[in-house]
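Hey, I was hoping to borrow your eyes for a little while. For a while now I've been wondering how a particular protein folds. The fold is given in discrete form, as structure tokens running alongside the sequence. Could you read through the record and tell me how the tokens relate to the sequence? Take your time with it, there's no hurry, and the full record follows here:
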Amino acid sequence: MRHVIALDVGGTGMKAALVGADGTLLHQARRATGRARGPQAVVDGILDFAAELHAHGDRNLGAPAVAAGVAVPGIVDERQGIAAYAANLGWRDVPLRALLTERLGGLPVALGHDVRTGGLAEGRIGAGRGADRFLFVALGTGIAGAIGIDGRVESGAHGFAGEIGHVVVRPGGTPCPCGQHGCLERFASASAVSEAWAAATGDPQADAADCAKAVESGDTRAAQVWQQAVDALADGLVTALTLLDPRTLVIGGGLAEAGETLFTPLRDAVQQRVTFQKLPTIIPAALGDTAGCLGAGLLAWDLLDSTDRTEVTT
């Protein structure tokens, strides 16, 4: 069966799949990144994992993979195929596409940013399917986004498009590792809500999921912490929709797992802030933690499609 290799590399773990032309997940696997052993060990682990998937497909699906796609965190130069920087993996300027192509015997390889890749999947085959303009926002340890235009995701001139987490929503506020003060992700990410709720309860183990449960049970302290995060998120989102005018706004990541505990007040807060802007449809992501793998698979299939078009026209 014709298929591609898809890898989604996170800070602590890797998810992988063999993906059919129709988006079917034909085989799935997971493993740790091994980042405790250093950045080279992470790179070696990615190469080994990809090679194992390649062998599995050849052995069990009747044919070798025709391409590969890999999604990684941090700063990614998608055109050059370089993983430029990832603080949580400790690497700089890793020529990951070239390394994978060599390891996989010359197989075409596409490299993408993890959130943009997940956003591609959500926009094309997930919650945003059918929307010509969408914005995908992932509320996790930080906050990042993907700008969707006619079935593709915009990476920007330098690979920084979609970094909504570093829109300043509280000028002069909490310092951010990026060097600014008051960035959105310091107030509305899952980690920010966890920190705020832990401080409010005096329990260092309390997290955002605990806060959401407390909101649902009527805890007034939790409601205050939660509303502060929702208000900051709404401020950031209205800035984004003013600039981008998306038809659909897809929200994913750990904080979105709170469901309507998040979405009901968020829709209200966004609606209260818009004036001339058109209110987008605000919906939860649909693909869960398979989005990265599915998106990496789409990148691989797109790479083949573009190669086919080039060969036809030359």
